[in-house]
Amino acid sequence: MKNLLFHELLLSAESEKTARAVQFDRHVTVIKGVNDRGKSCLLKSLYTVFGAQPKVVHPKWEALNVTLHLYFSVDDVRYSILKVGKQYSLFDADSALIGTYVRITSGLSPKLAELFNFRLQLTNARSQQPEQATPALLFLPFYFDQDSSWVENWNAFERLKQFTTYRKAIAEFHTGIKPNEFYQAKNEKIQAEGHREELRHNRSVVNRVLEKIEELMRQNQFDIDIASYQAEITILLSRCNELRLDEERIKEEMVLLDSRRRSLERKIHITHEAANELGEDFTFAAEKLDDEVECPICGAHYENSFVERFKIASDEDQLRTALVEMQQELELCMTEINKRTKLTDQIQSRVEDIKMILEARQGEVKLNDILRSEGKKEVRGVLRDEMDILNRDIGRADLQVERADDEMKRLTDKKRVKLIKDFYREKMANYLQRLDVTELEEKTYKEVDCTIKESGSDKPRALLAFYFAILKTIEKHSTTTFCPIVIDSARQQEQDTGHWTKMLEFMRDVRPSNSQMIVGLVDDLDIPLGGPVLHLTDERQLLQRDQYEEVAARIRPFIDRTLAD
User: Which of 260, 400, 504, 548 could bridge across to 19 with cysteines, CB 3.0–4.6 Å?
Assistant: First the structure.
């Protein structure tokens, strides 16, 4: 079991420039002062810095928004934690930042659970999902608040009811009835069950597909040796290759022929237009112009002789001849295109041949049917392999669930549980006797999660007996961290001097060995509790102006580290 110790608490209020540094003894520290001196605010701050909100906090103290920095150790490994507003920052022994958290349940709690070996998982009352228990539930058996703990046990912090049946779970966890190992096994079981359900769902899906494949195969019940159809399959593949090669060749030829066709059509169009223009020029020169023509722009004279007109006619004839040749070439091109089109039809015919091969029968069975059947067989084989894998994985998940369940049963063995409860009851009966509580019947406190039902001045003493009986049980049987015992104003319900003396001596003498105890009280009757006494003397002035500069200077570098990250 780990051991948590508080070493020093720094408190600083920026708004009023006041602060205080409080050191705690390794064994016992007494915080002494009359009412309204800030004892409770100081003690509550030990838990506020961890995100555990005490049930009652004075409004004026809350309004100060005090910055808190606590130095502590876990099994002699030093840490510190800083609270600024709603931000929590954890540091190691070298003041290096471990992490900064703004949420308690989902941020700070898991980190502290790891640090304090606090593995308790509880069901969230709203979401009904398992969650890591908050720091308040770690400290609950160790903190006895003046406002709540002397009225009802297990009631010192806010938001405890965010978890269902927290009282029973906390009592069983801390006393070791259901230790860390139980909740670790429980978590493993939950994870294995979740994984198993996912695997079962996948198996159900695969099984439905497999059943459909089986049904389709039953509709065509035959079992043919695929090797006997190898020749047909070879023909099929050969024809497919031929078609692919022919198709590629024809595509290339068609592209070239089509390009040639478009080129010829453009040339024919251009040549035809040119020939028509020359014919019009010849007619105009022969019929409309004189033998000598004057240029209307420069005034020069040109002959319109027979020779000139003959030359125009000769050019037109050449174009007409070229036009005939190009028309012939175009016809040849179109002939080749038509041939390629016929080849395309031949390819379609070959496709039909392939279809015929697929329709080839042996008896009443088509090759196509066989190929489909073989495909279904292949799918069925894959699905069956997948089913085998899923069944093996489900089997492993079943084994994990079974092992976790066995571990949970082992940890909650009836003999072991009885041993722990008997130890608790024995301590409870002894402590009630020592504190002069004689009317409380055993049946009211026989369970570790009981509610102490007593009245008058006997009730605080009965609660003190219960708290220490639980602490002693934790010391002997728990596997989590033993936290400092913080007792605030135990003298409730007008305890007379005799009973108060017994309560003080009881706390001093029964304190678990190697534990740290911090006690806040008004009057100790000069009974030494085994440690130094811090006297609080200023009314409503726990924090001091003369300590502000020093304390603020110590806190400031830690704040800077959180800002740097």
Answer: 548
